[in-house]
Amino acid sequence: xxxxxxxxxxxxxxxxxxxxxxxxxxxxxxxxxxxxxxxxxxxxxxxxxxxxxxxxxxxxxxxxxxxxxxxxxxxxxxxxxxxxxxxxxxxxxxxxxxxxxxxxxxxxxxxxxxxxxxxxxxxxxxxxxxxxxxxxxxxxxxxxxxxxxxxxxxxxxxxxxxxxxxxxxxxxxxxxxxxxxxxxxxxxxxxxxxxxxxxxxxxxxxxxxxxxxxxxxxxxxxxxxxxxxxxxxxxxxxxxxxxxxxxxxxxxxxxxxxxxxxxxx
Amino acid sequence: xxxxxxxxxxxxxxxxxxxxxxxxxxxxxxxxxxxxxxxxxxxxxxxxxxxxxxxxxxxxxxxxxxxxxxxxxxxxxxxxxxxxxxxxxxxxxxxxxxxxxxxxxxxxxxxxxxxxxxxxxxxxxxxxxxxxxxxxxxxxxxxxxxxxxxxxx
Lengths: 265, 153
Description:
By secondary structure, chain A is an all-alpha fold. Chain A has 2 domains: about 1-80, Orthogonal Bundle (SP0561-like), CATH 1.10.3910; about 90-265, Four Helix Bundle (Hemerythrin (Met), subunit A). Chain A is about 75% helix and about 0% strand. Chain A has helices at about 1-5, 10-15, 15-25, 40-45, 50-65, 90-120, 125-150, 160-185, 190-220, 225-240, 245-265. The longest helix of chain A has about 35 residues, at about 190-220. Chain A is globular and about 65 Å long. By secondary structure, chain B is of the alpha/beta class. Chain B has a single domain, classed as Rossmann fold, CATH 3.40.50. Chain B has a 5-stranded mixed β-sheet with strand order 2-1-3-4-5. In chain B, helix 4 (about 115-130) links the parallel strand 3 and strand 4. In chain B, helix 3 crosses helix 4 (about 115-130). The longest helix of chain B is centred in the middle third of the chain and has 13 residues, at about 85-100.
């Protein structure tokens, strides 16, 4: 089993699809992951399951890989059932979670923007480039840079999950470049495909961060590091000024008003 | 049961579930003097840029691992929100610790009795008056020395 623990999760799921189904049951969403290079032991560890749940999960994974092997089932004491864990964040990490909310509001509008683009005679360049400006400035510069330059520095940058996050950021930047090109060439299909791909990528990316990565990093931070990170994030925010987040919140509110009116017309 | 939970008589001397070890020396993690909130000065060098523990008086006696788990690496101020007088001075000192001493974090450790939450309120009031913002953590210790909660507030 030790060998299995050190295998990449995607490779394991491909070889034993039942492993993917078991992980899904435990709310561990590795199956749709675009990279899947995390090791099984890290995947299990990072989710911080209670010991009983983890023992049962490992038993079921082992059974899925070695169905003929005699493995004793862990004794689960139902009286020790633990309450579902409430995720709490340290103040600097909570700030990053709160920033996700504005990004998710744009993601929620993308299907309406795509529909509007398809039904228009030509691509509304101002609209698309406005969205791109939000993504590049608010999501990428203001938010992702704090992750990359501050938060991720507190953990091993070579950890697979961090590499997956970097890759997601790069993939997202690629979709944005393609969206801009589509808008410049008035290519509706290119705009549509890349905006929808960005939406899908970022939805999963934010879910992974809010539910798995951020709590995992928070568990490793000392009190001193939390204070230090809080200060660095505040300094980063101060360097761009108070107006930037306000400007992009206003942009989203106006976009919501526009597309809410489109829907109710 | 009636009366103030903070001063109600409870005897748990017969407690049998005593896990842990009595072997080995536990050095003090205290690195400063004085420690009482009225006696400390926010300008003291041991507060500058540090992580601060604001402890309700009873917590160090109730929680067996106080030095190792909470005091280690921090500077401390102690107070009793039930018995101490002139607590508005405490609010001003918290403000000064944040703004002038530029402390890194503030951890407030209190007992579970309702009056003890007054100390957390003093910390919040001081933080609200301060122009700098810092992370504040609240740790609540049960009467029998167990940690009931630990969260950023």
